[in-house]
Amino acid sequence: MIDIDEYVTALDRRLRGPGHLKRDLLAEARDSLEDAAAAYEAGGLDPVHARRRAVADFGPAAEIARGYQSLLALAHGARTLRTVLVVVPLVHVLWEMNRRFWMGAWPDGDIPLPGWYLLVARFNDWVSWGVAGAVLVALVTGRVLARRGVGTGRLARLAGGVAVAAVAAPLVGSLSVIVATASVDVSRLLELSPPVSLATVAMYAVMAGLGVQARRCLVFSAA
Amino acid sequence: MKPDAVRGHLDALLLATLDGKQLHGYAIIEALQVRSGGVLDLPTGTVYPALRRLETAGLVSSEWSTVGGRQRRTYRLTKAGQRALAAERTAWREFTAAIEGVLGGGPWPAQA
Fold first, then answer.
1. Is A20's Cβ below 8 Å from some Cβ in B?
2. What's the CA dihedral at A23, A28, A29, A30 to 10 degrees?
3. Which of B53, B58, B73 lies closest to A28 in CB terms?
4. Separation of alpha carbons A221 and A156, rounded Å
5. What is the ipTM of this complex?
6. Which one of A28, A30, A41, A69 would you mutate to disrupt binding with B, by most B Cβ within 10 Å of its Cβ?
7. B15-61 pLDDT, tens per residue?
């Protein structure tokens, strides 16, 4: 049988997610274990056995950690969705403002653009707003489902799926425009001014960061 | 009582324990054990994720506060929690009345 310190350390090692919430959950678990040990000690058990009994009552760390992990996964998922809700449209707006400042209207070019290209470009123009709307709906729906008693584990997996899709969609839109432009008239890509190219790199860096957060949603909810 | 049997009712039991009171986690566990005459036996570690789940559902609220000279996270029912508890109590009374009618061993009602 293990002591309270070892037990809390074992829980700590099994849990992955937002640090502040994890610390909060572990502090509360430790408080409870110390309270239980004090109660057993007051009942006549020696301190060592009182602490071990408290740990035994708390339950196997592997089993108890599952409940805590779903809370951490849900918290991370909700935070990631809130971040996506703000950052994805913000990045799009800033990139467009930067592009208009340095380049003005898109040049006509020597080669006329086919109709399908305009569809791809239109999709890329609107995908960020579509993502923001979908994420907002997901957050509201998640809150409603939580109030209706849907489990935290299921909600966390749902949030993870939405987060991954919400990050993937703008990336697909942006990459589609690049591929489409290269296939229609590659010289248009070379006409991008350095500040616009830099902003594009920065945009992909931000989206990569969001992608890491979204992937963690899936990892945490599967842990 | 088997933990699995208790687990299905854990949320309602926690809401009932918090009815009209603000308690920290271990006090909730003690109250559950006292009010059940020590019959309710489930890993105490399952109570805390359940409380946080109820908080996510908006049925309880929690805060760190000083209890007995120590910082503890304490829980209380929200208005939605009070309504959920009232609904759980009504459903439980209907359920136990129905089961009692069958299992209670009294005389069967005369058939029409």
1. no
2. 90
3. B73
4. 6
5. 0.81
6. A28
7. 999 999 999 999 999 999 888 887 777 889 999 999 999 999 999 99
